[in-house]
């Protein structure tokens, strides 16, 4: 099982009302939630670990996880409210305003770490859950505790405007990268992590020196590449699509990458070292296919395996 660890929230998506004014429709979302949904729909055994509310939005999140065959058994339930993210779309690009104070997802503490069963072979982390405290320390503690036994993929999905204490966030990210097997970043993320001059390839190699085995870099419409510790690299183009919006594009790209690696049997500590360039090229290609379907739909709505003939 792949256990996706991080935020679940409600995206309030702007939608015209019958009267002509713009309203907001609640859609289940969150970077890690979206990846979990994508994996479940691709037929990969998937679980979800987060703080989930018992309120009506929390019930919506749990129901949507179940509908996509994702287990919420590891979720920490409470009566705190659900995080809300109001979305503004401009030219298909999404920006967000978060309401996240004292929420079920944010108020996780390291003392609440669950015991994981042996069938959990890989952990996936990222998103705003690595910024907001105290939950950021909950996820960092889990990654550090289990990194020696389970494959770790990390996608920080950095939102500079959301970071209150940059030094503390950078230190946490560095600790988690040391134990990560796969790091996925956008080109903008990479430039934030390593500011200054230098090519994408040089910066990716600098990160592998921290201990990361594979660094995946996405460049939007320019495609994606994967960089190995020994200097090898592969790239794939983006899939053509008529873009409705980009909500969840990177998250569902990750689900495609993880789904291929899972199907190929690489997501265990015994096998992760055997991933080669051809394997990563296939994984990136599936990620691109999944993302292309998602951006052609409103909101984060990943495809099912049968839509991709898998």
UniProtKB/TrEMBL annotation:
Q: What class of enzyme is it?
A: transferase
> Keyword set for this entry?
ATP-binding, Kinase, Nucleotide-binding, Transferase
Question: Where's the Carbohydrate kinase PfkB domain?
Answer: 2-303
Q: Does the keyword DNA-binding apply?
A: no
- Which Pfam families does the record match to this protein? PfkB
Q: Which InterPro entries match?
A: Carboh/pur_kinase_PfkB_CS, PfkB_Carbo_kinase, PfkB_dom, Ribokinase-like
Q: What is this protein called?
A: Fructokinase
Lineage of source species: Bacteria, Pseudomonadati, Pseudomonadota, Alphaproteobacteria, Rhodobacterales
Q: Which gene encodes it?
A: frk
């Amino acid at each position: 099982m792949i256990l996706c660890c991080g935020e679940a929230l409600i995206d309030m998506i702007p939608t015209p009302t019958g009267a002509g004014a713009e309203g907001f429709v609640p859609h289940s979302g969150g970077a890690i939630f979206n990846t979990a949904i994508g994996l479940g729909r691709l037929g990969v055994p998937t679980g979800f670990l987060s703080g989930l509310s018992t309120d009506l939005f929390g019930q919506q999140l749990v129901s949507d996880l179940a509908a996509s065959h994702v287990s919420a058994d590891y979720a920490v339930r409470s009566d705190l409210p659900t995080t809300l993210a109001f979305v503004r779309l401009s030219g298909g690009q999404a920006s967000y305003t978060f309401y996240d104070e004292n929420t079920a997802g944010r108020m996780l503490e390291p003392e609440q770490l669950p015991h994981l069963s042996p069938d959990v072979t890989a952990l996936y982390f990222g998103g705003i859950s690595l910024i907001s405290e105290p939950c950021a320390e909950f996820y960092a503690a889990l990654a550090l505790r289990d990194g020696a036994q389970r494959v770790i993929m990390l996608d920080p999905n950095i939102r500079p405007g959301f970071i209150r204490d940059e030094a503390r966030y950078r230190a946490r990210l560095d600790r988690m990268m040391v134990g990560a097997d796969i790091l996925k970043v956008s080109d903008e993320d990479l430039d934030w992590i390593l500011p200054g001059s230098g090519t994408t390839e040089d910066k990716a190699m600098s990160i592998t020196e921290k201990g990361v085995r594979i660094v995946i870099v996405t460049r939007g419409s320019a495609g994606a590449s994967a960089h190995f510790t020994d200097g090898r690299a592969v790239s794939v183009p983006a899939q053509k699509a008529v873009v409705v919006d980009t909500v969840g594009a990177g998250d569902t790209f990750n689900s495609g990458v993880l789904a291929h690696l899972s199907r190929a049997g690489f997501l265990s500590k015994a096998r992760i070292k055997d991933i080669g360039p051809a394997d990563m090229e296939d994984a990136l290609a599936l990620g691109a296919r999944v993302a292309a379907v998602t951006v052609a739909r409103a909101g984060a709505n990943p495809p099912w395996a049968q839509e991709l003939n898998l």
